[in-house]
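About this split. The held-out portion is used to measure sequence recovery: a designer receives only the C-alpha cells and must propose an amino acid at every position. Recovery is the fraction of positions where the proposal matches the reference. Here is one held-out target exactly as it appears in the evaluation file.
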C-alpha cells in the first residue's frame, strides 16, 4: 500500500505535525506572558515539546501512565525544571504534584481525549476547574471515532467547504494525471470497494 499523502499533499494527512505546531504556538504565547509558568503535558508519551518551547525558566511536567513514563525515563531522562508524573490523567492526585502554581499554569492534552468516554472527559474538566481555576488548556478534539468521516467537514462555513473541495479536487486530479499506472490501479481498487460509488473518469 503506498502513502497517498506523499503524492497528493492533502492537509489532513499532515495533522500530527500541524497539531504540534499549533500547540507550540499556544504554549509560546502563554509563556511569553508568563515566563515562569508551569506547563503540564498530559499523556506525554515521548513528546518533545519541552525541548522546542523551553525559555529557560518555565517548570514543566510530563504525565503519562507508569509503563510509558518508565520508557520515557530511559530514553529522555528528566532535564532540569522537568518533572515526570507516572499517573493516569483521570487520577486527581496528580494535581497535587504540580508546584510553582502561582505564576501561571498551562495544560496541554494532545492525541488522547478522543479515546475517553464523554463522562470521563466531563469529570476531567471539572477536576481541572476545581484545582487550576485560572489555568489555560490546549487540546485536540477530533470527531468521535464512530462518526461518519464527512462529519468534520460540515463544521466549516459553506464557502470554505467549497474552497477546500476545489483544492482537494485539483490536487487529486494533478496526482491522478501523473501517477504511474500501478498506483492508479491500486487507488481504483480501493475506490471500487468504497460504499459510495465514485469512480475516476477514464477507467471503465
Ligand atoms: C496517542 S498518544 C499521544 C502522545 C502525545 N500526547 C502526542 O500528542 O503525541 C496517547 C498517550 O496517552 C497515554 N495515555 C493513555 N491513557 C492515559 C491515561 N489514562 N492517563 C495518562 N496517559 C494516558 C498513552 O500512554 C500514550 O502515551
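Reference sequence for scoring:
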Amino acid at each position: 500500500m503506498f502513502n497517498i499523502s506523499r503524492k497528493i499533499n492533502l492537509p489532513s494527512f499532515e495533522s500530527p505535525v500541524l497539531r504540534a505546531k499549533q500547540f507550540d504556538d499556544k504554549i509560546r504565547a502563554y509563556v511569553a506572558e508568563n515566563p515562569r509558568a508551569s506547563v503540564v503535558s498530559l499523556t506525554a508519551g515521548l513528546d518533545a515539546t519541552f525541548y522546542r518551547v523551553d525559555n529557560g525558566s518555565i517548570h514543566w511536567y510530563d504525565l503519562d501512565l507508569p509503563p510509558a513514563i518508565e520508557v520515557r525515563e530511559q530514553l529522555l531522562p528528566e532535564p532540569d525544571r522537568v518533572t515526570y508524573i507516572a499517573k493516569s490523567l483521570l487520577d486527581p492526585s496528580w494535581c497535587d504534584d504540580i508546584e510553582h502554581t502561582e505564576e501561571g499554569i498551562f495544560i496541554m492534552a494532545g492525541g488522547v481525549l478522543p479515546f475517553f468516554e464523554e463522562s470521563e472527559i466531563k469529570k476531567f474538566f471539572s477536576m481541572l476547574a476545581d484545582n487550576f481555576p485560572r489555568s489555560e488548556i490546549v487540546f485536540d478534539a477530533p470527531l468521535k471515532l464512530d462518526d461518519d468521516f464527512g462529519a468534520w467537514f460540515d463544521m466549516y462555513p459553506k464557502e470554505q467547504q467549497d474552497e477546500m473541495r476545489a483544492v482537494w479536487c485539483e490536487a487529486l486530479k494533478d496526482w491522478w494525471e501523473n501517477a504511474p499506472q500501478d498506483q492508479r490501479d491500486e487507488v481504483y481498487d480501493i475506490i471500487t470497494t468504497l460504499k459510495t460509488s465514485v469512480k475516476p473518469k477514464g477507467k471503465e
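Annotator remark: The chain has two domains: 13-139, 147-204.
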